[in-house]
Amino acid sequence: MARSRSSSRSSDSSSDAGSKRQWLFTRFVHSRIWHSSSKVDHKTAPNETSALLDAHRPGGEEGGQLKAAPEANSKTRGIIWGALTLIFIVGLVLLLFFQHLLVDSFYSWLGVLPRDPVLAALVILDKAPVIDGHIDLPIITRFKYANNASAIDLASPMPGHVDIPRLREGKVGGFFWSVYVACADPDEEGEDFINATWSVRDTLEQIDISRLLIEKYPDTFQFAVSTKDIKSAITHGKIASLLGIEGGHQLGNSIGAIRQYHALGVRYVTLTHTCHNAFADSCGFFDGITPLHGGLSSLGRSLIDEMNRLGVLVDLSHTSDETAKQALKYSKAPVIWSHSSARAIHNVPRNVPDDILRLVGTGEGQQDAVVMVNFAPFFVAKPGNATVEAVADHVEHIASVTGKQYVGIGSDYDGIPDTPVGLEDVSKYPALIAELYKRGWNKYELAGLTGGNFLRVFEGAEKVAKALQAAGTVPQYDLYEKRKDIPRIEL
Ligand SMILES: [Zn+2]
């Protein structure tokens, strides 16, 4: 216990530095605003003071009159001191009783955050916008518009939780477009997972519609495949648009497929959805399901090797606890939970339990990761109790176990039938930031939550991929043992 406490302290301080670095990046983006306001302070204050002093310098024009009329001088001095005293008293009263209004009116000049939580949230999000790990907009476009990009108007109100005006209102700087295809019916799929051959076709169609919509709105979206792309998009006022695949079943049991998905821009794969697949065990949905492999299969370990080599993030949302534990240990690169909350706050298999959260970090036996909190009411609280405060409870619980630098946001908007009170759509992220600000989170910690923590993890995976490729690591060629359609080659 002592060891884990001290390692958590040291990782806290190192990640504080990390959070500050991320904050500094966002400050860099807006440095001109901050610098221009501080320049005004320094330039004007001394000039006003010196003008006042010059007017009363002995030997000056007034000084000459003073010699001639000492009584008039004394009267003038009395008026000036009286006025100054009055200004001082008024200033003191304002400072004592209306500090809140003063700070919130001049926060940018004072270089501090507004005290009003909503105003503070907006200021923080202007510098560190939200990067959401999981948004299901592409599944809405499939089911409501048959993936016809010309029939979809993202600039007008959309039927779900996401459209451009609301993304802008919510201060979104980037999100993963979830390229989701449902698990096959178990009877149709068969126990060997080899019958649902449409999974790869449908995944390609979902990649296609995502990319078409990203291209359709070049003033809003910027396709992104790296941390460099995300930062560039945010710097230019665009919404970085990334692709994530929600289930290993969408690979058609083929490791070759991940290479081609990567080439099309996919940067995470959730190892499972609600069904087991050839690579790993799922946690199912509400009640959990009987394990098949006992975590990762040997093909699943090869898949992780290939994802590490390519720089595709391993996503552990939807996986069984055993899969998550094994993947955390096995992956050479940091991992994510693209949309999962805390099981200690609401006990469903889709949420992450504390014993797994304790494996997250930079200490011995830990792996760097970010748990991006899901807003789905049935994962947040008992029916009727899902609110923005309840979501904040999940964020705070995860942070209390892992440290604040390991939490992010993965709303699941457009993939959930209803939403928590106060977080009705993508325009409402500021409400969550305001709630956490009220609870004492500082701007560095909040900038980490909104996107900085995810950027650190993604950057970590990019570095691992670069190192593996530089070392000449060969691609994985393992075949799923149940496939009979291609010959085995003995090497
Ligand atoms: Zn999901």
From TrEMBL:
Q: Which PROSITE patterns match?
A: RENAL_DIPEPTIDASE_2 (PS51365)
An example Gene Ontology molecular-function term: metal ion binding
Matching Pfam families: Peptidase_M19
Which GO BP terms sit in this record? proteolysis
Instruction: Give the catalytic activity.
Output: an L-aminoacyl-L-amino acid + H2O = 2 an L-alpha-amino acid
Q: What class of enzyme is it?
A: hydrolase
- Give the residue spans that cross the bilayer: 79-98
Q: Which cofactor does it need?
A: Zn(2+)
Name the family the entry cites.
Answer: Belongs to the metallo-dependent hydrolases superfamily. Peptidase M19 family.
UniProt EC number: 3.4.13.19
State the PANTHER family in the record: DIPEPTIDASE (PTHR10443:SF12), MICROSOMAL DIPEPTIDASE (PTHR10443)
What keywords appear on the UniProt entry? Dipeptidase, Hydrolase, Membrane, Metal-binding, Metalloprotease, Protease, Transmembrane, Transmembrane helix, Zinc
- Report what the protein is called: Dipeptidase
